[in-house]
């Protein structure tokens, strides 16, 4: 068995990023090390994203995270209603069907679900 357990991510403000992932995506705080300027958040599958403050944080087009959700269109509506900006709403893309938004450092966050990926993606 092989399973990705955690990933460290360079961010410009670890608290701001922690709050964004908790408030926007519903990840739960796992731990915080203020003296190191580090916080960790965890998803429902117990995957941990370790947010490490580093100046400057560099986000590139290849820094993309894909989160599987239960209903991508429902997630989009709820987040958009709360004023969360999206790069694009759920739509067909070269990677399938889903939506994309940016975290505070510009990392790309893709949201998708298995049903609409199967039913609506091209190819």
Using brief descriptors, characterize the structure shown:
123 residues, alpha/beta, 2,3-Dihydroxybiphenyl 1,2-Dioxygenase, domain 1, four-stranded mixed sheet, globular
Question: Can you describe what's shown?
Answer:
The chain has 123 residues and is of the alpha/beta class. The chain has two domains: 1-57, Roll (2,3-Dihydroxybiphenyl 1,2-Dioxygenase, domain 1); 59-123, Roll (2,3-Dihydroxybiphenyl 1,2-Dioxygenase, domain 1). 24% of the residues lie in helices and 37% in strands. It is built from three helices and eight strands; from the N terminus they run E-H-E-E-E-E-H-E-E-E-H. It starts with 5 loop residues before the first strand and ends with a helix. The model has no long low-confidence stretch (mean pLDDT 92).
List the helices and strands and how they pair.
Layout lengths: L5 E6 L2 H12 L2 E6 L4 E5 L5 E6 L10 E5 L3 H10 L6 E6 L2 E7 L5 E5 L1 H7 L3
Parallel strand pairs: 1-4, 5-8
Antiparallel strand pairs: 2-3, 3-4, 6-7, 7-8
How many whole angstroms does the radius of gyration measure?
15 Å
User: Class of the largest domain, according to the CATH hierarchy?
Assistant: Alpha Beta
Straight-line N-to-C gap: 30 Å
Strand order of the largest sheet: 1-4-3-2
From N to C, what is the helix and strand string? EHEEEEHEEEH
Which structural category fits the helices and strands?
A: alpha/beta
Unreliable stretches, pLDDT < 50, 5 or more residues?
A: none
- Total E-strand runs: 8
CATH architecture name of the largest domain: Roll
Main sheet characteristics: 4 strands, mixed
Question: How large is the count of helical segments?
Answer: 3
Superfamily at the CATH H level of the largest domain?
2,3-Dihydroxybiphenyl 1,2-Dioxygenase, domain 1
Q: Might you state the CATH topology name of the largest domain?
A: 2,3-Dihydroxybiphenyl 1,2-Dioxygenase, domain 1
Let me know the average pLDDT: 92
The shape, in one word, is globular
Strand content: 35-45%
Number of domains: 2
Q: What share of the residues lie within helices?
A: 10-25%
């Amino acid at each position: 068995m092989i399973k990705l357990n955690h990933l460290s991510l360079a961010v410009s403000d670890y608290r701001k990023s922690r709050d964004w992932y908790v408030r926007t995506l519903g990840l739960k705080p796992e731990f915080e090390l203020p003296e190191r300027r580090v916080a960790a958040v965890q998803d429902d599958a117990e995957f941990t994203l370790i947010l490490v403050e580093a100046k400057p944080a560099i986000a590139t087009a290849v820094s993309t995270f894909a989160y599987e959700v239960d209903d991508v269109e429902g997630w989009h509506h709820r987040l958009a209603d709360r004023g969360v900006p999206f790069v694009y709403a759920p739509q067909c893309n070269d990677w399938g069907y889903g939506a994309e938004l940016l975290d505070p450092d510009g990392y790309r966050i893709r949201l998708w679900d298995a049903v609409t990926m199967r039913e609506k993606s091209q190819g």
